[in-house]
Amino acid sequence: MHTSRRKLLAGSAGLAAAGLMKLTLAPAQATPASMTVAMQKILQGAKPTPGRVTIDLPPLVENGGTVPMGISVESPMTATDYVKAIHVFNEKNPQPQVISMTLGPRAGRAQITTRIRLADTQNIVAIAQMSDGSFYSGEAFVIVTIAACLEDLP
């Protein structure tokens, strides 16, 4: 059976178009319950102590596409007492875990800054994992007027 290049391209374009028809914008899939599940994967049964973690996030965001965020943790950052990791979670984005950053005593300060996308008005939770195995947490609420993160992720 001989297939011309033109027929092959036309067939491929048809398959691609059919695949694109299945793509739709869907609302974010995460929920407060899925955020709790994601946090438990990090905590492994431990309970974080509220405090020592500060989230610097605007309380009102016009565009959820790029939101500046800073996290700082009170820690001496010495060889025996330091922040091992900072984990950030959200309630309503497609993925409940936003970011995890690993730190060490040579970092000098337990502080990170980044930009995140937010699908809707929601709570953001940051958990600091300390060198002694303990966890501390902080929380911030942000109002988003124009949502981001509407893609349908697997």
What's the arrangement of secondary structure elements?
Elements: H1 5-22, H2 32-43, E1 49-50, E2 53-56, E3 60-63, E4 67-73, E5 83-90, E6 97-102, E7 111-116, E8 122-130, E9 135-146
Parallel strand pairs: 1-9, 3-9
Antiparallel strand pairs: 2-4, 4-7, 5-6, 5-8, 8-9
* CATH A-level architecture: Sandwich
Give the helix level as a range of percent.
Answer: 10-25%
Tally the beta strands: 9
Approximately what portion of the residues adopt beta-strand conformation?
35-45%
Distance between the termini: 37 Å
- Biggest sheet layout: 6 strands, mixed
* The CATH homology group name: SoxY domain
What number is the mean pLDDT?
86
Total individual domains? 1
Weakly predicted, low-confidence segments:
20-26
CATH class: Mainly Beta
What Rg do the Cα atoms give? 21 Å
Number of helices: 2
